[in-house]
Design brief:
Layout: H1 3-16, H2 21-34, H3 40-53, H4 57-66, E1 77-81, H5 91-99, E2 103-107, H6 115-126, E3 134-136, E4 145-149, H7 152-162, E5 167-170, E6 174-178, H8 185-196, E7 206-212, H9 217-223, H10 234-249, E8 255-256, E9 261-264, E10 274-280, H11 283-292, E11 297-302, E12 311-312, H12 331-336
Parallel strand pairs: 1-2, 1-4, 2-3, 4-5, 6-7, 6-11, 7-10, 9-10, 11-12
Antiparallel strand pairs: 8-9
Length: 338
């Protein structure tokens, strides 16, 4: 397929996968059986984000205009080890392979092995010539490059097995929130979306916030009451109860509500159902933290202008555009260079 045909196929996929309950209901039911963390609303939110932010007509044209060698079909076999922490999390790498004319050899996580294959079926049913660009496997063999997404632990195995190939290997990352103390209630409510969406399991979920001295944490917790229904999810509630018990037994100072534990900590990564916070006196302290932890921070949500930070508005952390590459590594450039 030439580039024009591939883009046309992706535009079609973006249109046909737009959330429609009657079409997606059986697929969503299957996905939820595979992964209890997946809910109807989270899956629909992910489908909507992919169809608009990755596969919109103008989005694809912007990508085409930025990269002048997309017309040159690469034809390389790219092994993709997809994560399964949130719905459709691996689809950006697969779309990028298709755009650059490479073959995606995909090893799905057992936790998300329904949604993306269904999207591929939607695409290839209309465009049979696209089938050769997608190969779903149980074990990666015969490939020219690798894109692997996992944890800090699995990344060591990835580097051992795939280090001799061109690769992108992703580790644990989290988002950071930086508050000035002048945020409106609406902005704080949107911050809650960055924290609670997908139960905080995504690399773009805010796991820690920086707050100025004298910041009214009680008021923030009150604003977050909007998200209290998250505790009705059994697995989330189990994590909440367990973590609260651990902090209590260890006599760690913390704030707790029916749906969230907040704990003062210098650590970026926090447990499920927990949010870390850290006070600052000067914004330079925050910027130093961002610089020192750049390899662990996926993005920063704030209203402030921060140096050398990949910043997003409150509520936008889980709505990256196509060119907001994970870990700040340009996947298209990587694939074109193969």
């Amino acid at each position: 397929m030439i580039l024009k045909e591939r883009i046309e196929a992706l535009e079609y996929l973006g249109e046909v996968m737009r959330p429609k309950e009657d079409v997606w209901a059986p697929i969503i039911a299957q996905a939820k059986q595979k992964n209890p963390w997946f809910t109807d609303s989270n899956i629909i939110e992910a489908i909507d984000a992919v169809s608009l932010n990755y596969l919109g007509k103008q989005v694809l044209r912007d990508v085409q205009s930025k990269y002048d060698k997309l017309e040159r079909s690469q034809g390389k076999r790219v092994g993709i080890i997809a994560a399964g922490n949130i719905p459709l999390v691996g689809i950006h790498d697969i779309i990028s392979c298709f755009l650059t004319g490479n073959i995606a050899v995909i090893k799905f996580s057992d936790k998300d092995s329904v949604l993306i294959p269904h999207c591929i079926t939607l695409l290839t049913k209309k465009y049979p010539d696209a089938e050769k660009y997608f190969e779903i496997v149980e074990r990666l063999e015969s490939f020219d490059a690798v894109i692997a997404t996992g944890s800090d632990n699995t990344s060591r195995y990835f580097e051992y097995y795939f280090g001799k190939y061109p690769n992108i290997i992703r580790k644990n990352r989290n988002a950071l929130g930086v508050l000035s103390g002048k945020e409106t209630e609406e902005e704080l409510l949107l911050l809650g979306k960055d924290i609670f969406s997908y139960f905080g399991l995504g690399c773009r979920n805010v796991s820690k916030i920086f707050i100025p001295k004298e910041f009214p944490l009680a008021e923030l917790m009150k604003t977050f009451e909007h998200y209290r229904d998250i505790a009705f999810h059994n697995k989330y509630k189990n994590n909440l109860d367990y973590n609260a018990a651990i902090y209590l037994l260890n006599r760690d100072s913390h704030l707790i509500s029916d749906f969230l534990v907040m704990r003062e900590s210098s650590s970026l990564s926090s447990r499920i159902s927990c949010l870390h916070y850290q006070y600052y006196e000067k914004i330079e302290e925050v910027q130093e933290f961002i610089k020192s932890n750049s390899e662990k921070i996926q993005c920063v949500v704030t209203q402030l202008n921060l140096e050398n930070a990949n910043t997003f508005k409150f509520g936008e952390a889980q709505k990256p555009e196509f060119l907001d590459f994970a870990d700040n590594v340009d996947t298209i450039n990587f694939l074109q260079a193969l």
